[in-house]
Amino acid sequence: MAGPSKEKKTLQMTVQTVWEARKSIQSVVKKTPLIHSKKLSAQYGATIYLKYEHLHESNAFKMRGAVNAINHLTAEEKAHGVTTFSTGNHGLAVALAAKKMGIRACICVSKHVPTVKLAAIKELGAELEIYGEAQDDAEQRCYQLEKEQGLAVIPPFDHPHVIAGQGTIALEILEDLPQVDCVIGGLSGGGLLSGIGLVMKQTNPDIRVFGVSMEKGAAMHESLQAGKTVSVTEESTLADSLLGGIGSNNRYTFQMTKNYVDKSFLIPEHSIAKGMAYLYKEHHIMVEGAAAIGVGALLDELLPIDRQENIVLIISGCNVDGVSHFKAIESYI
Ligand SMILES: *Cc1c(COP(=O)(O)O)cnc(C)c1O
């Protein structure tokens, strides 16, 4: 299936695919506000908007892709239920989406996933499959459940329906700010920026899309640099939602990120901390490092921005690792 069908599916995705996703998710996923940041605009000298994607019920944009993917299952597949292996925002989104739609969800985790995360998943009514020592084991278990029990795997980023779901962010931005010049968002598996990039570039190739990642463990950034998928070691970061590989058998997001993201940048931890502190201080929101990373990158002058432009930063989520992350940003507040 890999070769020709991959090419075909990538090429088949259009703005229309994303419009269809928007129709499909609209009863469950609400449009989020686009906020003009007066302070950041004044301080930085460009016109800067924040897309408040942390306001979803699951606290992150991942609801968009998860709901769209589940909506595209057949009635029979829905009756069997869904499974995934992410313990982060995607896992929470799948659990919540399944709960809302009244279908079974089973989240596969390794033995080392912290109990806070397990509690959050359980609270949403999802089942937990605790299996193996590492994330890879949990992923394997997930595909085993697909074979044994007929559960549908909802992948975290490398899937056309997930990508189209995330792309609905771009449609909302274009509605609210048709004069947008540049969009900046966190880059991990690339579902977010594949979807946004697809819509922006097909609408107007002059709209620029920038990806930002933490310095260590940025799998997509390293893969783009190498021109092939590479794996990286994970290190502790304030932007923990940006950790994880892109899959050795990546089918969509590597190619789409290559096509649609103009450039990707590595941002040091202190800049991420500064971004979090800034949003807390000036906008009174406490968001994840993965969401504040673009703000930190601007504040530290790490991106090639034309000051005449209208810039949108994707504030992607607010599932903050409470106390430890708050301590890390304290000195910047
Ligand atoms: C998943 C996630 C990202 C990155 O999205 P990808 O599709 O994996 O590139 C950014 N921010 C937050 C809060 C996320 O949960």
Automatic annotation (TrEMBL):
Keywords, sorted A to Z: Lyase, Pyridoxal phosphate
The Tryptophan synthase beta chain-like PALP domain, residue ranges: 27-317
Domain of life (superkingdom): Bacteria
UniProt cross-references to Gene3D superfamilies, sorted A to Z: 3.40.50.1100
TM region(s), chain numbering: none
Record has DNA-binding as a keyword: no
Cofactor section: pyridoxal 5'-phosphate
Keyword Nucleus appears in the UniProt entry: no
Signal sequence annotation: none
Family matches, as SUPFAM superfamilies: Tryptophan synthase beta subunit-like PLP-dependent enzymes (SSF53686)
Designated name of the protein: Hydroxyectoine utilization dehydratase EutB
